[in-house]
Amino acid sequence: MHRVEHVMGFPVSLRVDDEGFAERGAEAADAVFAWLNEVDARFSPFKEDSEVSRLGRGELSPADLGADLREVLDLCEHYRLATGGAFDARLPGRGLDPCAVVKGWSVQRAAELLTAAGARRFCLNAGGDVVAAGGPWRVGVRHPEHADKLCTVLELTDAAVATSARYERGDHIIDGRTGRPATGLLSLTVVAATLTEADAVATAAFAMGAEGVDWAASLDGCEVFAVDADRQVLRTPGFPTARAGTAAA
Q1: How far apart are CA 84 and CA 79, in angstroms?
Q2: Residue 73 pLDDT more than 50?
Q3: H helices of 93-244, where?
Q4: Share of the chain above pLDDT 70, in %
Q5: Is 139 within 8 Å of 249 (Cβ atoms)?
Q6: The model's pTM
Q7: Which of 208, 168, 203 shows the shortest CA–CA distance to 75?
């Protein structure tokens, strides 16, 4: 089964390879995309009536927040403290914007919906950030300067990968300590057990600049591949580079 929809401003593709899953697969896929659309409606800072926008304008008190948004805000605060303020969902001039956590968190939840429905081998790709169940799956990481090239290919089994970079949206990741764009890295990729962690760590480490590579690598269960501003490649020993002959995702 293969399905693609545009949600939260990027394409989300779902591939399920389980034999016999097709009969209930359509219903499970419907639930995945319904959840992601719900997240977009509730948590987008670009929608005036979203829960996030209303909180940012002071129309909601902490007591009014749903459990999901409280969880997201707790994650944002965790990474703010862990990075000494480099990662911050409340930057001056931008208002409340938890998107860096929401994306990975929501796609991981979507993957859990698939698992609960009985899917065992699937790949859920949200704008290049991937949850891979079963496997092994081959996942390519785009070259930070050449859109038609890959800088590495991973082999994933029951894991997630996320990349933060400057190539899609320019210098959009801000170092909260300085208020200026983070430019110490060209791209940074993190592999972790969940996309919640991989995506948040990738963004937080990128915001820290070059020092973020060592910070991310120090976290239990995280493997890192980075290209710095001098085009030097840095990777942790356990980064799951693909072997030749592995089936492609």
Answers
A1: 8
A2: yes
A3: 99-116, 195-208, 211-217
A4: 96
A5: yes
A6: 0.94
A7: 203
